[in-house]
């Protein structure tokens, strides 16, 4: 996307997550989506899930909506905001333990995917998650090789049943 004209919708979505943190509007929309995904109201064909992870500072459960990637018999979650996303930090502090609602709650362990294996998942993720596209500096239609250099910046987690 470097050098390309930024679409107005992408500009808005970047504004909603300025500094890689959701603003007030984003938090409200995320809470609504998380509730819908957790209750099976809006599932996006099985892609929309709610992740519940314990906050590393507050200790309370934090819920957020994510897009689940099904690929090669595995399930994956991706951080569109990169390594500094709060849910990623919380997840590392919880040693990968979380609850995934899709819509039934499932105890899971999210396992960090090695950087050299992330590119195909990132490409598939962008195909499934239009809201993430403004945050990832590679076009979803780009060849797989273009995803390799950005792979270290975007954590990918394999979802294992606990």
- Helix % is 25-40%
User: How does the major sheet shape up?
Assistant: 7 strands, antiparallel
Total beta strand runs: 7
Mean pLDDT across the residues is: 88
Q: Secondary-structure element sequence? A: HHEEEEHEEHE
Total of helices: 4
**Order of adjacent strands in the largest pleated sheet:** 2-1-5-6-7-4-3
- Measured by DSSP, the beta-strand proportion falls in 25-35%
Distance between the termini: 38 Å
Please tell me what the overall shape is: globular
Parts with pLDDT < 50 across at least 5 consecutive residues = none
Could you give a quick summary of the protein structure above?
The chain has 162 residues and is an alpha+beta fold. Helices cover 26% and strands 25% of the residues.
Written description of the protein model:
It is a single chain. The protein is an alpha+beta fold. The protein is built from four helices and seven strands, in the order H-H-E-E-E-E-H-E-E-H-E. The protein has helices at residues 8-16, 24-38, 86-93, 119-128; strands spanning 48-54, 61-67, 69-71, 74-78, 97-101, 105-112, 156-161. The protein has a seven-stranded antiparallel β-sheet with strand order 2-1-5-6-7-4-3, sandwiched between helices. The model has no long low-confidence stretch (mean pLDDT 88).
């Amino acid at each position: 996307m470097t050098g390309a004209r930024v679409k107005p919708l992408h500009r808005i979505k970047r504004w909603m997550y300025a500094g890689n943190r959701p603003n007030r509007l984003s938090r409200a929309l995320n809470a609504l989506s998380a509730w819908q995904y957790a209750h099976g109201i809006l599932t996006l064909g099985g892609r929309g899930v709610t992740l519940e992870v314990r906050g590393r500072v507050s200790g309370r459960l934090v819920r957020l909506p994510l897009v689940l990637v099904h690929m090669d018999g595995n399930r994956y979650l991706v951080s569109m905001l990169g390594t500094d996303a709060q849910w990623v930090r919380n997840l590392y502090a919880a040693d990968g333990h979380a609850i995934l609602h899709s819509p039934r709650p499932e105890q899971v362990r999210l396992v960090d995917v090695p950087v050299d294996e992330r590119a195909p998942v990132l490409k598939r993720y962008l195909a499934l998650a239009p809201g993430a596209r403004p945050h990832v500096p590679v076009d979803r239609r780009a060849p797989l090789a273009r995803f390799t250099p950005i792979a270290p910046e975007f954590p990918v987690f394999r979802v294992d049943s606990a």
